[in-house]
Design a protein that fits this description.
- The chain has about 170 residues and is mostly beta strands.
- The chain has an 8-stranded antiparallel barrel with strand order 1-2-7-5-6-4-3-10. The chain has a two-stranded antiparallel ribbon with strand order 8-9.
- The longest helix is centred in the N-terminal third of the chain and has 12 residues.
- The model has no long low-confidence stretch (mean pLDDT about 100).
């Protein structure tokens, strides 16, 4: 499946791996279909690590999500530069709508074991076009806002995520 993330800084195209992360992609597609991502922001940007979005609006309000999904991080995919993965809390099976794009190789986020510490973060695709936009977002100045750290000073809006091909 190919999707386009339209942001106020430009477009990012992803290729999603349905074979390796079917439940994660079904979940991501449900959020796309419900237009959940429209008006969300990249709210966490850490240089030489990742950019994260998909859960908060421009006023830093958390959007309502569906139920959490099963963590598929044991799928053999690695958190390498340019891959997209599900964000979650410390609870391994707590991912819902938020995702992040790795801006460097982050193998320490990979699945190691089915324990609380070892579950890792589920990679479900990769950037195939627009890595320059990811890098522009990554280089944005950040601040603290509404109890969150590493928030871009300038709002980086996700205008829409659309499916280009299944």
């Amino acid at each position: 499946m190919k999707v386009e993330i339209s942001t106020t800084m430009g477009n990012i195209h992803l290729e999603l791996d349905q074979e390796k992360a079917p439940k994660t992609i079904e979940n991501f597609k449900a959020y796309i279909d419900s237009r959940h991502y429209e008006g969300t922001i990249f709210h966490r940007v850490i240089e030489d690590f990742m950019i994260q979005g998909g859960g908060l609006d421009a006023d830093m309000n958390t959007k309502t999500t569906m139920d959490s999904i099963e963590n598929e991080a044991d799928n053999g995919l690695s958190n390498l530069e340019g891959t997209v993965a599900m964000a979650r809390t410390v609870e391994p099976h707590s991912a819902s709508s938020q995702f992040f794009i790795n801006t460097t190789d982050n193998a320490f986020l990979d699945h190691r074991s089915k324990t609380e510490d070892g579950w890792g973060y589920c990679v479900f695709g990769k950037v195939v076009d627009g890595m320059d936009i990811v890098e522009k977002i990554e280089e944005t100045s950040t601040t603290s806002r509404s109890g969150y750290q590493d928030v871009p000073e300038e709002v980086i809006l996700i205008e829409k995520i659309k499916i280009l091909s299944e």
